[in-house]
Automatic annotation (TrEMBL):
SMART domains (alphabetical): HTH_LUXR (SM00421), REC (SM00448)
Annotated source species: Micromonospora carbonacea
InterPro entries assigned: CheY-like_superfamily, NreC/VraR/RcsB-like_REC, Sig_transdc_resp-reg_C-effctor, Sig_transdc_resp-reg_receiver, Tscrpt_reg_LuxR_C, WalR-like
Residue numbers of 4-aspartylphosphate PTMs: D54
Keywords: DNA-binding, Phosphoprotein, Transcription, Transcription regulation
UniProt name for this protein: Two component transcriptional regulator, LuxR family
Domain HTH luxR-type residues, every copy: 152-219
């Protein structure tokens, strides 16, 4: 059973979440909070498996408390905000996923909760695009002439990535297709796919979304 806390200042939203999850046999809502500070107190006490966290709330917003919450629970952002700074801030703060209202079905919410509870990650399609935008704004570009960030270089070496795999990962973070990566590096699309499979295995991720999340994590 997945214990869930819902954090949103809008009671209509909290009621909607209850409705979405009413038929789930493996998820139960054990608490609700309407602001960030109340959420920290509640989560510290209940230690739920997953917390659904809105961004815009009174007293303390989601960005202000995501770090504190993630020390006690897995966090899944559930908000209407698509600002790149908000997305990257939530993910850097420890959120395991980011869902945008209007961009997912009720079944997607349940799947996301299960995935995050299991230690995985989940981004709605729009949030994935926004995360890539955040990478472009805040992360190093593959064609930057300046020095690379030592912390990220160290992290990538720790995973045993080759220089070519690091180049592919750099381009992956810009959101371009496998074919475009191949053109930039002089590789066939099949070779790019092989590199990506090796990268995912070394990083312990399953897909591009998880690789982007890991990239953001090492860009803190």
């Amino acid at each position: 059973m997945i214990d869930l806390v819902v954090v949103d200042d809008n009671p209509i939203v909290r009621a909607a979440v209850r409705g979405f999850l009413a038929g789930a046999s493996d998820v139960r809502i054990v608490g609700e909070a309407s602001d960030g500070r109340a959420a920290v107190r509640l989560v510290t006490s209940l230690r739920p498996d997953v917390t659904l966290l809105d961004y815009r709330m009174p007293v303390a917003d989601g960005l202000a408390v995501v770090g504190d919450l993630s020390a006690h629970t897995r966090v899944l952002a559930l908000t209407s905000d698509t600002d790149p700074g908000t997305v990257s801030g939530m993910l850097r703060g420890g959120a395991g996923g980011y869902l945008v209202w209007g961009q997912f079905r009720p079944d997607d919410l349940l799947d996301a909760i299960r995935e995050v509870a299991a230690g995985g990650s989940w981004l709605s399609p729009t949030a994935a695009s926004v995360a890539v935008t955040a990478l472009r704004r805040h992360g190093p570009r593959p064609d930057d002439a300046g020095p690379r960030d030592p912390a990220r270089e160290s992290a990538l070496r720790r995973y045993g990535l080759s220089r070519r795999e690091q180049e592919v990962l750099d381009l992956l973070g810009t959101g371009i297709t496998n074919a475009a990566i191949g053109r930039r590096l002089g590789l066939t699309e099949k070779t790019v796919k092989n590199h990506l499979n090796h990268i995912f295995a070394k990083l312990g991720v399953q897909n591009r979304t998880e690789a982007v999340l890991l990239w953001l994590d090492h860009d803190r």
